[in-house]
Each structure stands twice: as C-alpha cells, then as structure tokens.
Amino acid sequence: MTWFMVALVVVVAAAGLLRWRRPAWYWLTFGASLAMLRVLVRYGSVMDACGLTVPPSRWRLAVARATNRPVPGPRAPRILRIRPTRTGLVLRLGLRPGQDAFDVAASCDRLRHSFAMYGVTSRELRSGVVEVRMTGYDVLKRVQMPASTDAGPMRVPVALREDGSVHYRDYRAVPHALTLGATESGKSVYQRNLVAGLAPLDVALVGIDCKQGVELFPLARRFSALADNPDAAADLLDALVAHMEDVYQLIRAEQRITADVPDAEIAADIWSLPAKLRPVPVVVLVDEVAELALYASKEEEKRRDRIITALARLAQLGRAAGIYLEICGQRFGSELGKGITMLRAQLTGRTAHRVNDESSANMAFGDIAPDAVLAAIQIPTDMPGVAITGDSTGGWARIRAPHTSLRQAVNTCNRHANRTPDLPALAPFRPVLGIPAPADAPAVESIPATA
Ligand SMILES: Nc1ncnc2c1ncn2[C@@H]1O[C@H](COP(=O)(O)OP(=O)(O)OP(=O)(O)O)[C@@H](O)[C@H]1O
C-alpha cells in the first residue's frame, strides 16, 4: 500500500513536471508548490528572455570596475511577494527604473509559455508595482467559487474571472448594469446567480420578466414585486418612480442643514441616513428588455414611451434613493427606438455573453472598451455562461458564473423568504403565492385526411 502511494505521488508529480494536462485536483495537491518552485528557479532567465530586464545602473558598473569584479548582469523586476492561491500563483513585482506596467502586460503570453501556466494576466497596483496573476488550469471550464469571499452590504460574488479572482457585482460602486447575450448564452443563469447572491441581503427585489414570468416567478417568495407583461411593467415602473420621489422627500426632511452641521453629516443618499431611518435598497431586475420597447399599435407605443421614460428616470436619479437597475436582453440598441441609447449610457456595468454579431457586442462595449467587442464575439458556443465584463474604466475581463440550477435558486429564495421587505408603494405588485391554475394546452391542428 505504501509503495502504491509513493508510486502515485511520483507519477502525479512527474505529470506536473512533464507538463501533461493538469486538472484542478492536480493543481490543488501538487501544482501550486511545483509552479512556485519553477517560477523561482527560472525567474531570472525567463524575464531576460521575455525582454523584462534592464541593464545594470551606472553606479553598479562603477562599483564593479572599482572593485575589479565581473560586470553585473541585467536586472529583472524585484519579486516583492509570491503567494500560491487555489487556482495558481500571484506575484507582486517591483519595476526597475525605465520599465512600465505595459511592458509586463505585453509579455503575459510569453510568460505563460515560459512558466508553463494556463493563463497569465497583469495589472498595475500603484506606481512601480505590478501584480501578475497566474492560473494553473482553465478555471472557467468548471467554475468553483471559493468558500469565503469578500462580500459586502450591496456587493455579491457572481462569477469567477479567468485569472482565478472573484467577480463581484457591487451596486454601490456600479449602480446600474446591462447584460446582453444571444439566446442560450447563459443570461438567465447569470441573473439567477445574482438573485441567489442578493437573497440573503437586506434588499428588496423587484422583477420584470416578459417571458410570461418563467424565469423570475419561481423565485417569487423573495420578490417584493413582480410583473410578467408590459402593461403590468409600466404600472410597476410608475410605482417605483413614485417610491423614489418619496425617498428623496425623506432625505430632504433628514438633511436639517444648519450652520453647525459638518459637511460630512449632511445626507445626500440613503446610505448617509441613520440606519433606523434608511429605506431598504431596491434592485430592479428586467429580463428580455426588448419586449418592453416593441409595439404594434398606437396604444402600445404610448405604453412603450411610458416604460422607457420611467426606466431612464430611475437610471438617472435612482442611485441616491437606493434603486439599482439590472437590465438583461439579447440586444439593446438604437433600433429599439428613441430613449434607448440615453438609457444605455446610464448603465455603467456591462456584461456580454456570447453574441451572434459585432453590432450586438458593440451595444455593450462599443462606447466603453472597443477591444472587449472582439473578445465577446470570440466566445465559443460550447461554453454557455462565459461572458466579457467591462466598466467605464475601459478595463474588461472574461468571466463565468457557476452553474446554478433553477431548483437551487428557488431553494435559496425560499430559505430567505422571511427577508422579503414589504414596500407599501409596490404592494399591488406583490406576487400572489400558490399553485397557478393549469394553462390550456395549445390547440393541435387535426391531421388532414389523406386519400
Ligand atoms: N455558467 C454556466 N455554466 C454551465 N452551463 C451554463 C452556464 N450558464 C448557462 N449554462 C447552460 O446554458 C444553457 C442556456 O442558459 P440560459 O437559459 O441561462 O441562457 P439564456 O441566455 O437565458 O437563453 P434565452 O435567452 O434563450 O433564455 C442552459 O442549458 C444552461 O444550463
């Protein structure tokens, strides 16, 4: 038995050294320490080969000459810290004079091959310090979120980034977001992860699901208001605008500005109100947004204008009142009529799942991160759930949400049903719980008689 264990350890370690395919379990057992050894042993020569070294400084040359010692070699960035993680390694490098973060970013692919890692990415932490993240295997193939994450009051972990770090949806940093993707690209699973992440928090969930409620109604126990058709959605959005105005009145009443109130204590949004007075924040999830913007008659056109105006007002003014928009759809461009591009401009967070054409990717990233457009159209069809996420800083990353089934999301919502707040303004839209009446089966045409 002992010999068998020794042989197993040797074979697995050899697999790592010989660069065979390394799955996640391999990485967790041996990979991290072997990779750390490999990086430390080869660091100087790899950096030199990748063009990440600088010639020795003048004073070092002078000291060598004065002391009659050999000429010092080129110098690589200093390793400030090396840390093994669940998915790979994180290196913190101190740049030498003359180097910049772009040099390291441009060499990531060379570093990946040289250190035999699956992926290497870099980002500047502060002037002169760059963080290089290395992953040992494809972390997006089968997403496993870490057991502990850095969640916050309005910050939920929703996906894993390709560099192994957790992708958060932080409503206070990025209040409104747009999620696009072709059919079967993984939008609903992403939205389900969001709902499951928000369910345990002190937040009201409001849903508009124009697929007749099939995605959001099973999660109804955790929702304070739901609408499953454009008529109900128009009324619900008007009620939300009225709620927003009430919250603003409350903030005004609490400001009580006098000469002796320090600037920092003047409330300008719900988060600066005392906790006992603070209205509960509201996250509005809209699935298949294009359905709200389509119309076939004059009446429907009026309803459409009402919906888009209310959404634009919530996007413009909602943040301070604690109302956050999460809009999902297949396309969201100017062909949906007036007001759409104005509304889109307010949606800071952008996520694009697989899209069928460049113009759909442009709707998500054309105005903020043009190089993310190419990445979005390259997502393969056999990887549903993989998405590109970007923000107004121009940065973007490849992410994938863990596969959460509808059953798991329903269980999470039911477990936290007692947290569902009652919002008087939205009371008429509170979902009625119970088993819905069976729907009539679609009529089947009789088979024509044949001779
Ligand atoms: N993160 C993921 N990991 C693994 N599989 C996924 C992931 N996301 C989605 N899928 C799979 O992809 C398929 C489509 O997902 P989903 O229903 O979320 O797509 P969609 O974009 O909402 O499609 P539609 O617009 O037609 O409703 C599902 O079978 C789902 O199991």
Automatic annotation (TrEMBL):
Keywords: ATP-binding, Nucleotide-binding
InterPro entries: FtsK/SpoIIIE/SftA (IPR050206), FtsK_dom (IPR002543), P-loop_NTPase (IPR027417)
Gene3D superfamilies: P-loop containing nucleotide triphosphate hydrolases
Pfam family, one: FtsK_SpoIIIE
Positions with a binding annotation for ATP: G181, A182, T183, E184, S185, G186, K187, S188
Domain of life: Bacteria
Start and end residues of each FtsK domain: 163-362
Protein name: Plasmid transfer protein
Originating organism: Streptomyces spinosisporus
